[in-house]
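U., I forgot to send this yesterday:
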Amino acid sequence: MKLFAFDIDGTLIYNHNIKLKENLVNKLNEILERGDVLAIASGRPYSGIMQIMEQLKDGKKYCLCGNGNLVTDISGKELYSSGLTLADYYDFIDRYPEIFKHRTSNIYCYTLHRLGYLKKNIWIDFELKANGKFEAVNLKKENFPLDKIILKFMIASTPRRSKNFDEKIIKEEDKEKYNVMRTSEYFIEFVNKNGDKAYGVKFLSEYLGIKKEDVFTFGDSGNDVKMIKEFNGIAMGNASEDCKKVAKFVTKRVDEDGVIYALDNFVKY
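Result:
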């Protein structure tokens, strides 16, 4: 039995079109029909991942949510979690008011199953639109304890501001404290220092008794680097150079059916 773990954005889909191409659906269904395991490893929440899973046949399907910090079965049952706390999130906002208060930026978090925010703007609307049945909670109106577990918090900004300002002012102490990842030109994400898609894939493979050499990982951006490096990693043709450097195989671009090409030309049975 093999395990296939796929990123979503830039790997299975592009231009934010959540509907998979028919030939890709057929190829992914072949994995399930063989009795192999198909996992989606994404920065998205469970509800966002289920938008992909619901397009596929029944089978051995698992969700690695919030960059692998929450692993669930297809029903949403928690198998593993590794997170931060609300105290981490609040402290970060207090120390970066120049980001949080800027009109085109935001800093928000994922609880285990909801979007938590202190300021509502376009980025909250974007998250809710992109992730299906994802619900949002205004943390100012909830009396959550400071030790409440969250999967991650993230900075959302316009590409120019994110690259030229947000990224540059992140303090070294935060880079040491958290696993900091740029997941797109808009987002910089912060997770548990020991939290990553690679940890989620490792947990799932061990949970299911699948050997490391039978694990294949597909991705394109900063939050995919470790899982690409640690397993039979495939980098998309549109992937970052960091991904390509550690990949066992570089396939075609996402808009050129790169996942299908890799499954046909790299995976051996």
